[in-house]
Amino acid sequence: MFKGSGVALITPFNEDMSVNYSKIVELVEYHCENNTDALIVLGTTGEASTLTENEKIKIVETVIEANKKRLPIIVGAGSNNTMQAIEMSKKYEEMGVDGLLLVTPYYNKGNEDGIYKHFISIAQFVKLPIMLYNVPGRTGVNLSISLLKKLSKQKNIVALKEASGDISYACEVARLVPELIMYSGNDDITIPLMSIGAVGTVSVLANIEPKVVHNMVYSYLNGDVNEAKRLQLKYNGLVKALFVEVNPVPVKQIMNILGKNVGPCRLPLGEMDKKNIEILMKELKEVGELN
């Protein structure tokens, strides 16, 4: 679907909590100019669970228009409601996006047969390439190796965003389901996952350090393992700070500190604790973003 750094794009809001569409245009331009390799829209970092259907459609329209076909656009269409996921996936395909990100059903979870049929049902209604999104910390469900094997036989299920944080599990996916292209879903282990075959990352860090994440990934792809390792380790303190509270609260806080003016998060995500803001400030200084 892409190689390199796919930014898990935030959704900016105005102070009245309406979507700031003009800021989305600015952010897309920023990423096009700063070496981001793909735009991942309406994911966890984009606060998709707080958006209405009409807002989601308008956000995707805005990104498509601003992007001008420069970068691949992959849109989060996942849901714990299979029929809704099918409907939105078809809509995004009609709009002209390049791929879909489908999270594992959450809350109602589903058993293995149900999850298999959920993903296959969506895949059979669209022709777009699909990236599965394994994030058990959010969904309460870990995609089993046997299930991934079955799903990989569907021709347009081609990739996996692996965000379990379990490197042993990721190694088994790489060994036993090599048909699925792997992307790191955890910024702190991007290079470790690339060492077992991942070709890129869906990155929260790329919202604030797009060139760094691109350079880190491409250093590894181009054989400069030492430089990739150096960047991974240099920025892991900042990455840790990005998750000192639930994502995307810290990354939006940092963007506002750096003058991006992306606004607050929508409820139920509230304001950051002042002590945690101090942690963010310290790590920004460590990497040279603040004097």
From TrEMBL:
Catalytic activity, reaction form: L-aspartate 4-semialdehyde + pyruvate = (2S,4S)-4-hydroxy-2,3,4,5-tetrahydrodipicolinate + H2O + H(+)
Pathway: Amino-acid biosynthesis; L-lysine biosynthesis via DAP pathway; (S)-tetrahydrodipicolinate from L-aspartate: step 3/4
Higher taxonomy: Bacteria, Fusobacteriati, Fusobacteriota, Fusobacteriia, Fusobacteriales
GO molecular function, one term: 4-hydroxy-tetrahydrodipicolinate synthase activity
Subunit organization: Homotetramer; dimer of dimers.
Protein's job: Catalyzes the condensation of (S)-aspartate-beta-semialdehyde [(S)-ASA] and pyruvate to 4-hydroxy-tetrahydrodipicolinate (HTPA).
Family recorded in the similarity comment: Belongs to the DapA family.
Compartment(s): Cytoplasm
Tagged with keyword Cytoplasm: yes
Chief localisation class: cytoplasm
Annotated protein name in UniProt: 4-hydroxy-tetrahydrodipicolinate synthase
Gene3D superfamilies assigned: Aldolase class I
Database matches in SUPFAM superfamilies: Aldolase
InterPro entries: Aldolase_TIM, DapA, DapA-like, Schiff_base-form_aldolases_AS, Schiff_base-form_aldolases_CS
Catalytic residues of the enzyme: 133 (proton donor/acceptor), 161 (schiff-base intermediate with substrate)
Binding site for pyruvate: 45, 202
Residues flagged as site, Part of a proton relay during catalysis: 44, 107
Keywords: Amino-acid biosynthesis, Cytoplasm, Diaminopimelate biosynthesis, Lyase, Lysine biosynthesis, Schiff base
E.C. numbers: 4.3.3.7
